[in-house]
Amino acid sequence: EVRRLPMNSPIFDGLQRIIEHPRRDPEWFPAAEQALNTIYALGDKPDALAVRLVRDQARLVQDLVRISKGDGGRTDNDDNDSDAMDVDEAASIGTGARKLVDPWDLSRLLFMVGHIAIKEIVLLESIEAELKRRRSDDSEPRRKKRASPKSKGTRGRGRGKGRAKEMPVDSDDEEDDELNQIAGSTEDEIGDIMSAIRERELLFGESKSLLALFGPLLVHVCKNLGKFNDRLLTVHATAALAKFMCISSTFCEQNLPLLLTLLQRAKSPIIRANISIALGDIAVCFNNLIGENVHYLYGPLHDADTKVKKTTLMVLTHLILNGMVKVKGQLGEMAKCLEDKDQRVADMARLFFSELSTKDNAVYNNLPDIISSLSMGAGAVNEESFGRIMKFLFEFIKEKDRQTENVVEKLCQRFRNTTDARQCRDIAYCMALLPFKSERSVRRLLDGLSSFQDKLAQDAVHKYFVEIVAKNRSQSAIKQEVKTLMDEFESKLKEARAKAIGEDEDDSEALAAGEGVASMQLQSAQQSDVDMGEEDEDEDL
């Protein structure tokens, strides 16, 4: 059981002084954060003190936010107020909202309400856990009582008195059953009640919730970052908005487009990095909302600022490795980080794929999408980078023959579906990275020859398949059946190469002949035009 201190304890006076100290120093923010953490960790009613802190700070932001009048000091009546996070009158943005205010005071206010919002979530979770624990402790004696033998009823069995005494025991059992059913249903409903408070009360409390008063203000500031031309203010406003979005799925859904727009357009790299972290938190709280916009999570991996890239890579590493986000073809964006100019980003990407390779064949399952992302479209990397990335990734599937066989089949299928020379070279390079150690893998290669035999006219494609044969021959502990199949593949490879080159030459000759015929026809037509012109001149003369 967690024991908390009463709010009239002197320790909270000291914490309040730390938060309300009028120092203009960026170090105030981490100090205030730790002070709020301590208040919520130790206080029996920390939200009562949080209300007073927000009220006092809001009064400093004159003519912008007006908090209802109240006693700024702490009293015993405040400690006993069960609705400490509610205020009596709704705050409003008055007619003086256009007046310039001190951005420092406003930054402190927005920071406080943002962090208090997060601590309210933590407080609700701790209350829920404590209520469930108490419910479990109360129901444990009843379960033991039901499990114990009914001594009185057993001794009296066979006698009139004994049978008369059995009736009250059975009645008690029925009462215990009813209590257990009530307790069980209550425990199930505790989570629903807390979720309802979090979803509908904290930010939509119909003019009573203190946090609800600041939601519109945060949205207004974030929509007009250009007008609020203060770096500190814009950073803390966007961070507070992201924290509010972790409370309610309704509020999150309403303002998620705004947050994604800021992620793409904000000039400050600090804001972009903070939003990247916030999207990770939102993905944990409301996975269904992020699932529809998961591609935005990968966008900052190509940010011009290295810190934003590192932050995004760390967030995605945490989400993917812990199963909080399903990978749907975006691993290619992570693979591009392996070739990042910053060595720290490249090392983090290597560590990510090393850990991912231990998670149910995740690299193997996403390999086709990774190849497509790196080889096709506007985001394709150059061939040198593609080769280094693929060489690293194929290390995770080399020791599994079954995976090798399936990869060969998938790559052969890609040969059938492409005519692009660059993609053909990339696919052939991936083929050459595979270890053809088993009979089945070589047979898959032999059966798939028809899918790429017309691509063998390219010298690079042919070279990679020759390397496959040479690498197989260099293996000492290879089975005779594998050698026989590889010899057959080599023979058919030569035939297909000769045929592809011949067809290519025939096509070139036919094209050249066609161009020659067309040229002769053009010259003949020009000559006839000249002759007709001369005849017309003779007739004129």
What does this structure look like?
The chain is an all-alpha fold and 541 residues long. It is built from 25 helices and no strands. The protein has helices spanning 10-20, 28-42, 46-60, 76-79, 103-147, 151-155, 160-201, 215-223, 231-245, 249-265, 269-285, 287-291, 295-298, 306-321, 331-336, 343-356, 362-365, 367-375, 383-393, 401-416, 421-433, 439-447, 449-452, 459-474, 480-540. The longest helix has 61 residues, at 480-540. The chain is elongated and about 90 Å long. The termini are far apart.
Lay out the secondary structure:
Elements: H1 10-20, H2 28-42, H3 46-60, H4 76-79, H5 103-147, H6 151-155, H7 160-201, H8 215-223, H9 231-245, H10 249-265, H11 269-285, H12 287-291, H13 295-298, H14 306-321, H15 331-336, H16 343-356, H17 362-365, H18 367-375, H19 383-393, H20 401-416, H21 421-433, H22 439-447, H23 449-452, H24 459-474, H25 480-540
Helix pairs in contact: 1-2, 1-3, 2-3, 2-5, 3-5, 5-7, 5-9, 8-9, 9-10, 9-11, 10-11, 11-14, 14-16, 18-19, 19-21, 20-21, 20-22, 21-24, 22-25, 24-25
